[in-house]
Task: structure prediction
Amino acid sequence: MKIDLSTASYGDKKRLDFCTDVSELFREEQFSDIRPCEVRIGYEVLDGTVKVIGECRVNLTSLCYRCGDPVTVTMARELCETFIEDGDGEEFYAYTGNIIDLTPMLRDLIITNFPTVILCSEDCRGLCFECGTNLNHSDCKCDHTQETGENPFEILKNSGGTDNGSSKDKNIKTKK
Ligand SMILES: [Zn+2]
Ligand SMILES: [Zn+2]
Result:
C-alpha cells in the first residue's frame, strides 16, 4: 500500500483506511495463513517529512509450539512513524519522490510484535514423547511418569528393594 503525495501540500492531514494482502511478505515465515491486514491511519504532510499515526490489525494462522495444531491469532497494534524524504532509512523510514510505500513498515510491525511462541491454549498438553499422539485430542498408552516425574530417583527406590541397609541410606541422601 502506498501514499501518493503528488497532490499533497504542506500541512495537509488526511485519513486512509485500507485492507492489504501481506501474505507475500511472509513467505519465509512460519505463518501458514495470513488474512489481509486492516490498516487505519492518518497522515500529516510536513516539509520533507510525513507523520503517520494509526493502527493495524492482522489475523495470522501459525502452528502451536507444543502440539503443532494450527492456531489463528489476532494482532492489533497502534503505529506512529515518521517518513523522511530521501532519508537513509536507519532511524526513520525513507521515501523518495511523491510515493510512500507503507509495506516495510507493516512488515516490521507484524514481525516485531508477534509472539515467538504461539500456543493453542495455555494448558496445551503437547505431543507424547514416545508415540507422537496429540494429548489434547486423545490419551495414549505410553507411561509418561518417567519424563514428567518430580523425583528422578523414583525408579531407583522401587527397584532397590529393601534387601540391605546401604541402599536405604542412598535413598535418604537423594531426598534432601
Ligand atoms: Zn497446542
Ligand atoms: Zn504415547
